[in-house]
Amino acid sequence: xxxxxxxxxxxxxxxxxxxxxxxxxxxxxxxxxxxxxxxxxxxxxxxxxxxxxxxxxxxxxxxxxxxxxxxxxxxxxxxxxxxxxxxxxxxxxxxxxxxxxxxxxxxxxxxxxxxxxxxxxxxxxxxxxxxxxxxxxxxxxxxxxxxxxxxxxxxxxxxxxxxxxxxxxxxxxxxxxxxxxxxxxxxxxxxxxxxxxxxxxxxxxxxxxxxxxxxxxxxxxxxxxxxxxxxxxxxxxxxxxxxxxxxxxxxxxxxxxxxxxxxxxxxxxxxxxxxxxxxxxxxxxxxxxxxxxxxxxxxxxxxxxxxxxxxxxxxxxxxxxxxxxxxxxxxxxxxxxxxxxxxxxxxxxxxxxxxxxxxxxxxxxxxxxxxxxxxxxxxxxxxxxxxxxxxxxxxxxxxxxxxxxxxxxxxxxxxxxxxxxxxxxxxxxxxxxxxxxxxxxxxxxxxxxxxxxxxxxxxxxxxxxxxxxxxxxxxxxxxxxxxxxxxxxxxxxxxxxx
Length: 498
Description:
Layout: H1 8-25, E1 30-34, H2 42-47, H3 55-62, E2 67-74, H4 75-79, H5 91-104, E3 108-115, H6 121-132, E4 137-139, H7 150-153, E5 171-175, H8 183-196, E6 202-206, H9 219-227, E7 235-237, H10 239-245, E8 250-252, H11 253-270, H12 278-281, H13 293-318, H14 323-335, H15 344-355, E9 361-365, E10 371-375, H16 382-395, H17 406-419, H18 429-440, H19 444-450, E11 460-463, H20 469-477, E12 481-484
Parallel strand pairs: 1-5, 1-6, 2-3, 2-5, 3-4, 11-12
Antiparallel strand pairs: 7-8, 9-10, 9-11
Helix pairs in contact: 1-3, 8-11, 9-13, 9-14, 13-14, 16-18, 16-19, 18-19
């Protein structure tokens, strides 16, 4: 743990240089479809240790003078009030969040493109909202026969019917709140309009995963399949690239399936296609920046396991059977040579639970490989107990030392149960951290423990029972990697508060 497998500085330099090269290839204007997360790409940081979650946005900042952002959002998603699972906000609200985020970093936002617009009431309301806020917006319409009827699509009745997005920079980054927003169609529609206006422009795609120049069954690429198991994405050898160049590269099924259509569109728009394969369309340089392959392999194996536990957890909590997703994740675990219960953090969590008659327990693996456990007690929940024990070990404080006295905890318990209507008197992770920070003002040892919190980032945590949403959120905010057995502390209950 704590080892670096990826050179982030090399990545920033190489990636920005490669994009500039692609811009020049197309005569000075490039539409770049940006897949995945521009902000907070924690999946990449987990499977490529050393990759910073904000790497992509930092790379764009290096291209600030050349770049402009266009945000695509599907009108049907607005109508359905589609919500981002990670943030809990609707796609239209996320558009506004993204605008603020980009502008705060000095990046120019050219506007918002409402794709698949067909007069949806919610989309009309969003357009009015954008107009009130002074945000330029454009409408792209459903095209009959998309994507197969290429002749109709690449015509004045197809792409030509869409509103032309006026852009002023050489690099137009097309991003979106989530998948299915119409990023590629927006880019291709713009190429059609640019060609009609006599402007030479090109298209490229930026997806971090799968990494095209890693083997098909490399754990990093398997981890991508695990992350998209619910979408049933499948990594594949790019047959077009193999035929054109005799070189084996990796892409995924949707890009490979759509490539002949995209290629035909290029030929109709510009007379010829600049690409011989979907791999050619990509600009991702991540595979060239791995400095320790084994570190990335191990991190990816653990990520697949985390995705498996998450699937089991969702199945338990929602009552929705996700057999296809679970079977796929089990297959990926097998391919990655990863076994449930193999990690030391799982073994010791279960051992601690068994030693206390089956009471909930949690274990944390520290950066040096030391595993610290905690159990449910009268004052603290298992996760809170393990967290405090971990901080003591990191700070070199004896385990028997009370960093927060029982006298300080009891009033908090009274507040929770007597005044706030809580049933569980034990402190959650956020509550014990607040109590610890209060003690730190007068207790040097408590202050020393507080200073160790950054060293928990990247540590694996395992709980023998499902944790509350507040514990899960706190551990995530600390940058810890949590897995839970799909078991409730009180299995016989029908309602379980998350």
